[in-house]
Amino acid sequence: MKINKMYSYSLLIPAGLIYGLFFLYPTIMSFFFGFTRWNLTDWEWIGLENYIMFFEESSLMIGFKNTFIFAFLTAGLKVVLGLIFAVLLTAKLRTKRFIRSLVFFPVLVSTIAVGIAFSVLLHPSEGLVNTVLGLIGLNGPDWLGNPNLAIYSVAFVDVWKGVGIATVIFIAGMMSIPVDYYEAHQMDGGNKFNAFWHITLPLSRPAINAVIILALIGGLRTFDLVWAMTGGGPGFSSDLIASIIYKQYQAGFYGLSTAGNVLLFLMVAVIVFPIFKYLNRKEVDL
Amino acid sequence: MSTQHEIMRKEKRKKSRIRLIVESLIVIVFSAIFLVPFYFIIVNAMKTSPEASKLSISWPTEFRILENMQEVLAARDNMLLLAFFNSTVITVISILILLVVGSMAGFVLQRRKGKSINIIGSTFLAGLMIPPAVVPTIWVLEQFQLFKTFPGIILVMVAISIPFSIILYTGFIATIPKELDEAAIIDGCGGFRLFFSIIFPMLKPIHSTVIILNAVQIFNDFVHPLYFFPGADNATVQLTLYNFMSMYSTDWNLLFANVLLITIPPFILFLIFSEKIVAGMTAGSVKG
């Protein structure tokens, strides 16, 4: 008890004050302002109107669908590709350090820079991607100009930029698996493919869970990449909730923008919390 | 004997040759996917405007890299230079604050036991998941007259970076034996002195991780300056790049020179600290 006194709460005050005032307080207040029409000084209570608008306007509704697709597609691809890369990069490759650096570096590059570079690479007629496809006789689509395709193109660029984190997390997980397990497996006559299914995959579970959760949270909140590549277009076809929040804010609809924030919060809570609980329960069962 | 030996050697050579082919294939595929975009940016940043407009990956016929960079830096009354200055100020001050308040909080959160401290801890961690509430944050900043000011954007950056920094600190502090604290107490150290004169200096390795990870994050941030630090004088690096995108829509060489310029700082950090960055990111994520 006396010891606890040494770890005085007063050491928590600066962090608590900044975090409380500039993060928690606005978050709590968003639940109130989502029910209002306001201009930062005056507010008028309008009940559920903002939320009803979100579900009735098809241009707003599309943001939900896109955010959902974007988050799950990018998270899924990051897990699958990250696992493949990690298996390759923990094998006896002489160039593995070089390749690991290649895969990881985009993580550190600014999203806007990546977005700009890829909007040029994906240019329908002159872009490098379609030029290469043309060389092998394929007619590449208008990646960012086709409303049915734009959100998927952005998602692939997001995976390109973010798969490095998943890869290094998986590598760290795989490196911590004792070599004995693989040796025992080999002595029992098992092959490498089986070793992956029966040793590597189950023992990478904590790393896989971490990647799923991280990627989902990141994907649900994505804004800058979509903004740099398509601006939500063509039309509203590649809008995400986060880009809608920005557009409504720019247009001066602060209440509507805040309602979007609340909906994004709820979406994260409804999707991520249950998955987090589910994944962690399984971990205990093992 | 000798023929058997020969066969074995041949087999070995064949195997190593297959190995070499497979390895080269892997390197080629990964380079094509992850290196070509950067190569594309670099060669086009060096070209003249008409040559860059072809959007090809060919080697430049005329090198204009220095002229391009000069032109980009001088554009709009040296806007990019101002942006570099602003982004550096925001990054450095935010990190200095984070180091002190983050480690203090991490220390108490790791050492204290009990229900109330657990609740406080999870409240901090919730910040990793919750998307920041945009307009209400502007509203709070306005109340303190901090909207569009350096202190305003810095406090917001610190607030959103605190959760991850706390994870890094608690993870590291857990490896410092508690006996050390007890010895200090017996020597008559108070809580604050225990932390600042004994614990804080021991955190050097994790301080550097916190510095590097947050430097990359804050310097590269686009969203928060866009919302909380608008205005022409308040240019930040990423925002400037975004605005130049429409301005240079015909001069790809200048746009890519700009991209190249702002990618240099993270690239240098990566060259020097890649191991530390990777370790910090994996440690933080697995615990979170």
TrEMBL record, chain A:
Pfam families, alphabetized: BPD_transp_1
Keyword Transmembrane: yes
Single Gene Ontology BP annotation: transmembrane transport
CC annotations in GO: plasma membrane
Residues annotated as domain ABC transmembrane type-1: 64-275
Membrane-spanning residues: 12-35, 68-90, 102-122, 149-174, 195-219, 225-246, 253-276
Protein name in the entry: Carbohydrate ABC transporter membrane protein 1 (CUT1 family)
UniProtKB/TrEMBL annotation, chain B:
Domain ABC transmembrane type-1 as annotated: residue spans: 84-273
Membrane disposition: Multi-pass membrane protein
GO cellular component: plasma membrane
Keywords of the record: Cell membrane, Membrane, Transmembrane, Transmembrane helix, Transport
Location within or outside the cell: Cell membrane
Major localization listed first in the record, in broad terms: membrane
Key word Nucleotide-binding present: no
SUPFAM superfamilies cross-referenced by the UniProt entry: MetI-like (SSF161098)
Transmembrane segments: 20-42, 79-107, 119-141, 153-172, 252-273
Pfam families in alphabetical order: BPD_transp_1
GO biological process entries: transmembrane transport
Family statement drawn from the similarity comment of this UniProt entry: Belongs to the binding-protein-dependent transport system permease family.
Name of the protein in its database record: Carbohydrate ABC transporter membrane protein 2 (CUT1 family)
Annotated source species: Saliterribacillus persicus
